[in-house]
Each structure stands twice: as C-alpha cells, then as structure tokens.
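sorry for the late reply, my laptop died twice this morning and i had to redo everyting from scratch. anyway the thing you sent over, i finally got around to it. pasting the sequence first so we're on the same page, its 424 residues, then the predicted structure underneath. double check i copied it right bc i was rushing
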Amino acid sequence: MAHGLPRKIRFAFIVQAVLASLAIVLGVYLVSAVLKYSLINTALKEEADHFWQLYAASSAQPPPNTYNLRGYLVLRGHSPLVLPEGMRGLQPGFHELAHDNQLVLVDERTQGRLYLAFLGSQAERMVFWFGTLPIILTLLLIYLVSWWTYRASRRLVSPVSWLAQQVAQWDPRRPDTTALAADRLPKDVQGEARQLAAALHGLSERVSAHIARERDFTRDASHELRTPLTVIRVASDMAMADTEVPPRTLRSLKRIQRAGRDMEAVIDAFLILAREAEVEPQSEIFDLCEVVADEVENAQALLVGKQVVLQMRCSARPMLEAPPRVMRVVVSNLLRNACHYTDRGRIDVEVEEDRIRVSDTGIGMSHESLERAFEPFYRADHNRPMGTGLGLSIVRRLCDRFGWRVELTSVEGQGTVAVVRFVS
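ok and here's the structure:
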C-alpha cells in the first residue's frame, strides 16, 4: 500500500516537523535581531543616561570601560582623534560596524558626544545563550515528541493497515477469509479493529456463498435447460418433415425453431460465463469467415416476410484462436439484434483482418439508448416482442472475457453499426 494510511501519517509528521523547524529558525533570526538592535540599543542608551548623570555631578567622571563595553568622550570643540578610526565619521544614533564587529551608540549632549561600543562577539554570545541554545533545545524536544507521537500513531493504525492489506490480497471470485477468523487475528488487532475484522470476515463469507450459489445456479440451470430444448428441436424437426403440415402450422414451427436456437445461444453464453475466469473454454484455430457465414445463413430465417437484404462480404480471411462457439454466440446475437430491429433495407456483415462489422438500416438508437445498450434486459423499443434485452450484454461480457472489444455507433431512424475488434 504505497499510498496507505501509515505513509500519510508519516508525511503529516514530517511536514509538521519541517514547518516547526522553519518557524523556529525564523524565530532565531528575529531573536538575534531583537537582541542586537533593540535590547543592546536600549541598554546602551540607559548606560549613556547614567554616565551623563554622573558627569553632571563631576566632570572628572571617565567614560565606561568594562569587559563588554568601551566608552569614548569627545567634548564640544575638542578633536575626535581620541576615537578609533572607524568611529570618527559616525553621526548620533545606533550603528553596527561590521569591520570591527562592534555595535556603537553615539549620544550627543550639550557637553559633547559620548561613544559607547559594545563588542560584537559579546552580542553573538548573548544571542547564542539567550536565543539559539533555547531554540535548539526546543527543536530537539519537538522532534522527540513528534517521533514519539508518530510511533504511537503507527501502532494505533497498524491493525487497520493489516486489515487493508489482507482485503487487498483477496481474489474477488474466491476471497480467502481464514486470516480474518477471530482465532487467527494478530494480538495487536483489538477493539474497533477486531470488530471490523469480524464484520469483513462475515461479509466475505456471505459474498463467497452468494457467488457460489449464482455460479451453481447458472451452470445447473443452463445444463438442465438443454434437455427440454433438445426435445423441442427434435420434435419441431420431425413435425416440419411431414409434407402434410399446413402452411400456418409450418410458420409456427419455424418460429419455435428460431426461439430454440436463440435460447441455445443464451445457454451457451451462460455456460461459458459461469466458468471461472482462469478456466478457459477449449480454444482452436478456425476460419472466422466460415463461422460468420454459418450464422448469416441461420439469420436468414429471421427475415422471412421482411423486405430486408442480408449480405456478407469477407475482405480478409483471418484465422482466430478462440472457442468457435463463443464467436458463434457473439455473431448470432449481433445478427439477431440487426434482424429484429430492421424492417426494410439491408444488413451488411463484413469480415476484415482485425474485426467484424455488422451494419443495418433499422430503427437505430437515441443517445440515451446507445449509452444503455449493454445493460442487461434493456431494450431500445419495448413495443417489439422479439428479444429479451440480454443479447448485447452477453456480447459485451464474452468480448471482455476473451480480450476483444465491441463498439456501437447508431443514428436514430437510420441504423446501427456494431464492430467487434480482435486486435487493439
């Protein structure tokens, strides 16, 4: 789970630590600026006021001279040569002398100018002890708390991550739920995670049972329906062989045979789709044109009494490796749709190197009908008694099963074109 919950939590903590670090680094810069340009400036001004008070009491008072501070007094009218060279051109105010690494306050009174120089090394030492060091300790504390919180959060979400991994490994057709059984859960799966595991375990068992029932029903029903269909087909063949059958009865028998063929095609499709995806039907190399030609001949019976011409053209003779009966089901469903919804005009079937195209001049489909054409039991025209609405759904599922692609284009009132592609 490359983008799972643990990764998101880790990313959140990293972002939090980075933002906190940036904020603290900015704080260090601001603290150093405050120490240099505010606190030291204020301290120097207070030192200057104190000196002038003492100087007013006794003119013999010398300028301050301490470990951190150097003072110089230039009385009015006297030469500034007593000053270090870097201070001689300074105007009243607060200055930073980068070349001398000093912070200098020039305080001017009626008596003269007082120059107070605070050593930059001392300022940096103050910044370190009162700014940088506390912030470094704060950073370390934040990292430690973030790491501890991340570890605790990871332990809390690890059961959910484990459940997600188990579910992601399930085979939708046969989900393995044994790992989620109550007696096989890891010890850290407790509380709500254990309840979730029990719910998933119960759900997967119900889904597995439902899939098995559906598969068994489809297989068994398809198999059992073959027996009565065989009886109907044989009986209708024998009845049609009787030369004394009235024309009206003969037409009814032909309709029975067509309905029987349609039902056999549906049963064949159900039997194929009911198998597991990894159990492929028996494949062989066959001539696609021969299979299509047989289905075109069978479809002619659906056009009796209609002013519709059904023609087939083979512009190529591709040899396809697949179950021939699957192709028969696909082609027969497309042809039945074309025959059912075409009252006059023509139906053209063309076999090309990589596709089959079935086009008709029937009623066509609206945009809404075209979007729903592959839905089971959907029919574009409910007034027509033919068909069950399963044909195109079966075609789509069979094509998906064998890696083919079916496409529909249609214009309402002008006809429909169905294409089955074998090569992407």
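The helical segments are 5-57, 120-168, 192-241, 247-274, 288-299, 324-340, 367-371, 391-401.
thats about all i looked at so far, will dig more tmrw
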